Amino acid sequence: MYAITAANGQLGRLVIEVLLETIPASQIVAIARSPQKAADLGSLGIAVREGDYDRPETLASAFAGVSKVLLISSSEVGWRLPQHKAAIDAAKGAGVGLVAYTSILHADTSPAKLAQEHRATELALIESGLPHVLLRNGWYNENFLMALPAVLEHGTLIGSAGNGRFSAAARRDFAEAAAVALTAEGQAGKVYELAGDEAVTMSEIAAELSRQSGKPVAFQNLPEEAFKQALVSVGLPEVLADALADEDAIAADDTLFDDGRQLSRLIGHPTVSFRETVAKALAAKI
Questions:
Q1: Where is the NmrA-like domain (predicted)?
Q2: Do residues 36 and 49 lie in contact, with contact meaning Cβ atoms separated by under 8 Å?
Q3: Is 106:43 a contact under the CB 8 Å cutoff?
Q4: I need a surface site. Which of 69, 93, 256, 264 has the fewest CB within 10 A?
């Protein structure tokens, strides 16, 4: 059986959608902090189980009888390592045969604050002795569109990445990669640096938004601290805003660029371009 943690999240939902194309629903376990929010998955024949990273006692039963687990990293920056360790311990106790972990691009060398907890989780997996595969995900195209209405309204895209290149891909691409890593044979011990086939800069992103929307959009490069405060001002927790601003500033040195094309090779087709993601997002607003 294949278990997906954080099954109610955007990535988790997509992974399950992809798995259902080739795997019977009866072989899929959706693990969620709030199982009631995954009732629709249960109606498909998927086993829905409670599993909360902050309540280790729920994880042992969540992983019972499971052969492979997709451990989707927690969204709680600053508290992810103990959460991930709880999941790893539970997986080991349940006799899970493979853990696929969603890490970050170049986790072993990245100077980004966001990479620290991922690097520590990778080490915890190694120390656990569990067979595992590391999915070092790059930036999602969708990350650039989270404030799309405000960007189009004000005509300004802000950040601190300068002319840094982002080898981004659609969230669906990364979901497909996770599904392959779970279902294909011989994945234990592999490390995938997953990034989009094309790279874009923030200025190119602004230009594409302007071209497709018909509204003028310009990129405004801010000092890291100013970008952090801008993120805080729209409601992000300070620890998350700090990590995101740090990641953006470091991206100016191409830390989120990778031209190895491991992602497209793994999923068997080119990755979705930023242009396509923008078109889909704008169409959804109509």
A1: 3-258
A2: no
A3: no
A4: 93
- The whole-chain average pLDDT of the chain stands at 96
Which pTM was predicted? 0.96
Condensed to tens digits (0 to 9), the pLDDT of residues 159-179 reads 999 999 999 999 999 999 999
Residue 61, beta-bridge partner list? none
**Nearest 5°: CA angle at 77, between 167 and 229?**
80
Give a yes or no: residue 64 inside a domain.
yes
Give the whole-angstrom CA distance, residue 270 versus residue 37.
33
| Exposure letters 127-144 (e unless 16+ CB within 10 A, then b) | eeebebbbbbbbbbbbeb
In Å, how far are 157, 181, 231, 238, 239 from 235, measured between CA atoms?
17, 35, 7, 9, 12
Which two structure tokens, joined as six digits, stand for 251?
């991206």
Say if residues 152 and 217 touch (Cβ distance below 8 Å). yes
Range of the domain at 62: 2-138+170-195+259-267
CB neighbours (10 Å) of residue 186?
A: 7
CA-nearest of 60, 127, 69, 143 to 94 is 60
Per the domain annotation, does 222 fall within a domain?
A: no
What is the number of structural domains in the chain?
A: 1
Q: Is 31 helix (H, G, I), strand (E, B) or coil?
A: strand
Is 121 within a domain?
Answer: yes
Please, are residues 168 and 196 in contact by the beta-carbon 8 Å criterion?
yes
Classify residue 129: in a domain, yes or no: yes
Task: Tally the C-alpha atoms within 13 A of residue 78's C-alpha that lie toward its C-beta.
Answer: 8
Give pLDDT, residue 170.
Answer: 98
**Measured distance CA(65)–CA(45) in Å, rounded:** 17
